[in-house]
Write a structure and sequence with these properties.
heterodimer; A: alpha+beta; eight-stranded mixed sheet; six-stranded antiparallel sheet; B: alpha/beta; nine-stranded mixed sheet; three-stranded antiparallel sheet; 10 helices
Amino acid sequence: MHYHIANRLNLRALPGLYGRQRLCLLMGCVLFLWACALASAPVAACSTNVAGLKCSADNSVASAPAKKASAKKNSRAGSPETILSDLLSRPHMAAAVTVADARHLLERAGIGAARHEITMLVGKTRAEAVQQILSGYKTRSQNMPEGWMLATAPPHWANGDMLNSERNAFEMARDAEIGALRTWWIKEMISTSSPQTERLVLFWHNHFVSTYDGIDNSAVIMLARQNMKLRELAAGNFRDLVKMIVKDPAMLDYLDNVRNRKESPNENLARELMELFTLGEGQYDEKTVKEAARALTGFRFEQAHDFTFTFNDWSHDKGRKKLFGRTGRFDGDDLVDILLDQPVAAEFIAGKFWRYFVSGIEDNPEQITAIADAFRASDYDIKVLMGATLSSEGFWSDRNRATLFKSPIDLLVGTIRSTGYLPKNWNSIPATTRNLGQQLFGQPNVAGWPGGASWVTPAHLLNRWQAVEVMTKIQPATPMMMLANNNMANSMAGNNMANNMANNMDGSMDMAAGRYADISLAAENYNGPPRWSLTLFKDKKPVWTSDIYAVEGGHDTVLFGRLDQADMSWDQVRLPIDYDGPFDSISLRFLNDAAGTDGDRNLFINGVRLDGDLYPASLGKQRTNCGGNERPGAMFCAGALILSEKITQAAPELRPADKDDTLYIGKVRMKHMTEAPGQASDRNNVDMDIGLQSVRFNGREMDNVIVRYAKRKNEGVTLELRASDCYPACLTRWPSTAWGQESRADYVNLDLRIVVPLNGELRHNDHYTRLTPEDRKFVAALWVAMPEFLKRASKGRQARENPKRMQGWEDWADSLSGRLAKSKFVRTNANPPVFEGLGKSAGGMMMMSGGDQGLPFPAGQTPLSGWDEYHLPEALSDTALADWLLATQPTQISIDDNQDMDITMLLSDPVFQLK
Amino acid sequence: MDNSCLELNRRRLLKAGSAGLLTSLFLPLVPIRLAAAAQRTGRRLILIELSGANDGLNTIIPASDPRYKELRPTIGIEKRERASLTADFALNQAMRSMMSGWDRGEMAVIHGLGYPGANRSHFKSIAIWETGGDGNRAGRQGWLTEDIEGLIGADRIDAHGISLGGGMGVFTSPSGMWMTMTSAKQFQNADPLKLASNASENEALSLLMDRAHTLDGAMQSVSAKMRRTRSSDYRINGGEIGAQLGHIAALIDAGVDTPVFKAQISGFDTHENQTWRHRRLLEDLSESMSGLRRALKRMDQWDNTLIMTYSEFGRRAYENESRGTDHGTAAPHFLMGGAVAGGLYGQHPDLNKLQDGDMEFTMDYRALYQAVLGDWFAIQPNRFSGYKDDKLAGIFTS
């Protein structure tokens, strides 16, 4: 069970770098590349040595080819810069910005409006203010993505062979990740210095909807990557954005394009691409939907190959399609170009911008058309679109102030940003916005949150008021909150990559000395929060017991009903332990279970970290009054969770050098098997796919290798490898005979296949002869190990569920042993394989690394430690307080006395629900 | 209190109407509609979502079909675990408490409900069922919201719909009084919003204020009714679903006026070791439904109540290797109520003609929606008029 986190991380998900895999041998690369990316330097220039190991990255950016169609039709186009400067030089843009104007601009273009942000804009011209917003867009988040967001995808492909306990752990890890992703994004929104970027990411997130519930196998990493890509392109070019999204694995999964094949087209993506993404309803007929679906056939992604987009030539319909008066052998990229050639596309997006940024009450058709014209003229430059919107007369008109209903994100994140008051329970914001109808990555359907008046339906109205009120009453988080009883820990040490690095380098734990347990927990409250205590045991005797603590920031089940586990807000607490002796297990007790007809009190534990070891709840044993069918860590009844299995985070151990020509394998999975030869009715065409996790061979390392052993009518007994079944690559070089087609620069074609027969007379023989000597050794080793693979796979789920088939394949392997020894493809003296095991943390059973657990104080302001600390800046202290916080005059309070006004009263005024 | 807030809304409606030329270019900024065309019948619908996808074949067993045992060699329901409905069909014995409803002709089973282009994702398929869509597109609004919002006469109404459990997907609407409550007593402790009335020129603000007033009125009305009622706690067996239906019984008893209620029972995703889990779920479901039936009979509300189950899809006809069943397509559903003409409706899918191991649906589920809207609520025409199916003719006695 030894595993060191600084093991190896594949770095392919960095925004802007996707398209080809690259390997980084040290976590430091992630940090380093991220730093490079933030510094906006070309990534290739960042290649350097970190801690003595070479990091490299190629700089092919996937969005580059998108320009092919854009250049051809810009007869009326101007450069985005000239278009923008024309827009901003209109007479009404010369007016000076007031406090109310600045708040208006900031709240609409960004999230909330902080005092220092307002102060910076007051007195400038409107044109200067808008220019300032436009020049502040970023393509990277300010907070570093969490480790798992940048890592290789967990082995979702192995799901089918996982035993129940493994599956539970795997799913719990994914649920923890979606929770972490939601919290990470909320944190970014609160603390970023570029709220305009997050505003646009949120807009596109609701324009190109893909949800956690709506994608298969809880593949949350696809959503994390999509979010990073949306941020990269948010203020770029709309054409790039749409072309990215039709190749985005989360979208291809969510809108079923993985099922869109030549033989059986699925129209879902094609329809929404037109109805929701580019043209709007009624701008195309049903025949066009069918034709568009044909163009999108074959756009898929590879599971075992780290969810890479792939263009599947075999399932693509290469025939002619008729689209909007044009005929040709169009594919998905061509389709996007054709759609964006329709004038209505710019009009459609401009209209949506108007309703999102200008007015929720009335359209102004002339102004929308003017915005659309500028957008089109710039060939879909989103900064131009934004600039045209923010510089429209309508945007600045009094008539359109306070005409948008604040979304739950506006209401919660916006209030924190506007006031600088970060409530202690900020990490419950994802659950609160969900209760108010805005769950991130959880829109009700592909059309997204309808927004507008739908935010204030009766089901949500009361809770909106309560949410703001609760926030003003909860204690503020303060930077000094560390230690003592039950405080939010500043970091979950070691569960954090940055800290790992620090720890590994200087050998010390962060922060203060002493012994701590870092505990990750969540709660459902009912008549108060759950209480818990922790006891250390040695030889079944308690050696130390903590005080009793209550969980903070739990979810109120009386007000909001029960939660799914994926929606939990996890809290990290650091418990000081004044005991120096040894222990062998940790017991966490849930003490005060309660439930009624109107609610339920439950405690959820994700894991404990102590002495550098991680004790995941999923490996624990649980005894509660419920009877024990729950997953460990989900405590619906009083009882104890006992943790003794741990994942040790030791310093990188010195592994003995690998032997030459030897396969080292973490885990063998039976991914798929037909009936065995001799069992099947069609005896000439049977196969089994054996999946290998964590493979090393002669200095090469691979996450996944799936190898197919088959009996074919023509070839006889064969071994088959497909490029898309290996990550990062199973061969050092693919023989040219395996290439199915020309690879296009913008499509990753992974459908390369080699077939190596056991007897060497047949037609695919040439594959083998063209392999490099190194790859021949690899193939030979895979042949030799096959009987051993089967033996290992016989403990898996597939074998248990299909014992007859399994027996058949094992018999077959036995019968081959003579031939295996003699075959010329096998004769290389390969050693027997070595099976190392994965360690329970690998293989996606744990959420690999949490992020920085620091508090997300809004950028650029001093956090409030009480409402009485909210003061207007000296220079503007004679302005009306209401102008800083409300979009129009309050309805419930008189604003005569600026000085004595209670800010929380302004926050509870109905006008505060608007922006 | 109620009247004044209704008054407000009617005025609001007029106001929006006159300004409509300018403002109605786009939704969803429409006011809550309480005035309507179709006449109210005083009838109500209680929806029960079987979340996770219920296994129809082990709920309503095709007893006389020899294929059943071949498809379900280990998890099939044995003869002694069945309660006979007709010569050909039996109910899972776990649901025996529903038999008195069946015997009195108050329970209908509709066979083989499904839709073209079956989607096997829980999330996507429940969205389809709740919005009245199919495989090629989900709808954007709850399947009944528009028609129900149009239904209400000038009568007093507390809400268009109240959900006691599960998602609000079926109540998705930009307008209307669709509420969620975690218990019947929830509003008793809630502070009213107490907003000073405000006639604003700002349409967003006045819509917000109107809604707040309407909600306030509804909450006050509901909690006033709950205070007056004899017992606000109806003990109905069946675990969590029993508790939800108990809240519904209490709200109905208190005179809370709502045409639609929704409850949810989850856990039907029985991929593994299905037998005992499914049995417990069906027990909870049937005990709570019969408990609600008894309660409503006592308060003389049974004849104007219709209970209907729905689920995202059915399960595969073939059992899997883990003694469970995987995601499938067609499934039967229940209707229960004093005015239901009991019996079996529609046709059971042919077990000899499976499509890749799945049953083919024999009735579009929207035909059932048509019957509920058109025949139960007497809304003609309605959103699903095009799906009318004669096999459901006469499913309500009046």
